[in-house]
Amino acid sequence: MSSNDKAAQTPTSSTQIFKDRIFIPTILAGVVGSGVGLVSKHRKVHGLANISATYATNFAIVVGCYCGAREFVRVSRTGKPDDLLNSAIGGFGSGAILGRLQGGQVAAARYSVMFAVVGTTVDYATLKLKPILRNYYESMARKEMKLPEWSPIKVLDEEALAAKRAKEQQIYDNIHNLNKGKS
User: Where are the bilayer-spanning segments (predicted)?
Assistant: First the structure.
């Protein structure tokens, strides 16, 4: 069995890790960025489509670089996916690269600290919220959705449903008979 077969059989293959930990957050960041562009104060000057696309692109680039750097550090350190040190080192590295491209050495220092702090904070919050959201989702999935008693919408059993259909048919017949009598 080759190493590619082993990787394909394991549930955490490299393509699955890429999809879950880099691709999906990047796509979500693009969606959030376009939403930010929709409410941006610059939308009147630059146009709604242009500013939304610009924000979506920038958010996706930043998150893609951060997630890629974080996963590169995780693989290099042979660490666990939830290790926050990977987030800090990856944030520091990606912030330094993007800051250097954006505005020189001073910006590289500022961006590296900012990316390390913000990225690690988001990863920490995600780690803490994931079990809470999973429990909430599972509790909602187990519970049947019931309408409150005061709701005007009632779920009918088979007898009540048959009585309702008979009453509707009677009303339909009465209206149909009235229409025949007029013509």
Answer: 22-40
Q: Which two tokens stand for residue 174?
A: 């009465």
User: Averaged over 5-22, what is the pLDDT?
Assistant: 66
Q: What is the mean pLDDT of residues 149-171?
A: 85
Burial per residue of 39-70, b for 16 or more beta-carbon CB atoms within 10 angstroms, e otherwise = ebeebeeeeeeebbbbbbeebbebbbbbbbbb
27-52 per-position pLDDT tens digit: 999 999 999 988 888 888 888 888 99
Average pLDDT for the chain:
84
For residues 74 and 81, the answer to whether their CB atoms sit within 8 Å is yes
What CA–CA distance (Å, rounded) separates 167 from 99? 73
Q: Using only the alpha carbons of the chain, give its radius of gyration.
A: 28
Q: What is the pTM of this model?
A: 0.66
Closest CA to 14 of 27, 1, 4: 4
User: How far apart are alpha carbons 85 and 93 in whole angstroms?
Assistant: 12
Q: How many CA atoms lie within 13 A of 64 on its CB side?
A: 11
Which among 157, 155, 158 is positioned nearest to 147, based on CA atoms? 155
Q: 67-70 contacts: CB < 8 A, separation 24 or more?
A: 67/21, 67/22, 67/25, 67/26, 68/22, 68/94, 69/93, 69/94, 69/97, 70/21, 70/94, 70/119, 70/123
